[in-house]
Amino acid sequence: MSLTGWTCRDECKYECMWLTVGLYVQEGYRVPQFHGKWPFSRFLFFQEPASAFASFLNGLANFVMLTRYKASVPPSSPMYHTCIAFAWVSLNAWFWSTLFHTRETDVTEKMDYFCASTVILHSIYLCCVRTLGLKHPAFANAFGGFLILFLACHVSYLTLVRFDYGYNMAANVAIGLLNLFWWLGWCIRNQQRLPYVRKCVVVVLLLQGLALLELLDFPPLFWIFDAHAIWHISTIPVNVLFYSFLRDDSLYLLKANSGVLKID
Predict the structure, then answer these.
(1) How far apart are CA 80 and CA 36, in angstroms?
(2) C-alpha torsion sign, points 50, 55, 58, 64
(3) 155 Cβ partners below 8 Å, 6+ apart?
(4) What percent of the chain has a predicted confidence (pLDDT) above 70?
(5) pTM for the complete prediction?
């Protein structure tokens, strides 16, 4: 408990929270939220055990699929290094998500939010490189620089001005929709010639659909599973499917780069 930052004051808040919940339920009132969050039953030092474990499993799925990708795709594939970078950015995000749900602090909360935004932006960059950058690398480099500048401004505002949850949500929804429509447009355009892009279609549609779980707001089932935890659990197989698409596409590009096939 001490190693993860729990103090006597935190322990007092936790015990008082459950005393309050008990009184509310006993008198027939709805379960209250505390500082905008539902009460969770702590397991050992894990503040939100289901979300923490699901985040860890998402990270593990990313790591396993990264290992398989590296084992099956040679570095000479045009998208190899961009895909590897995306994998490490994703692993970093799931690492901070696990820490945040294990023990919520100002640092772990901000890192969880910032790293989640970074994954979406890197997915946009990945899409840019795949759709335009292979033929126009200068454009991809310039666009990548713009995304880094946007991320820096985004993080600076939330860190130095004020941490605006509404703005952060709106920004992530905006870049998430850009990511969705860009990938979806390219997949639809190439689905007849490249059947494996259907995996990507399923991934982007599933991610957008599963994100709607965040709109649900209900007390945690068994004081462990809330909508956010269920969302994290649901994204585990999506990681596997997306890396399967990246592997298929990278191997296709490897053949195309050797002159056997045409790059699109």
Answers:
(1) 42
(2) negative
(3) 114
(4) 97
(5) 0.88
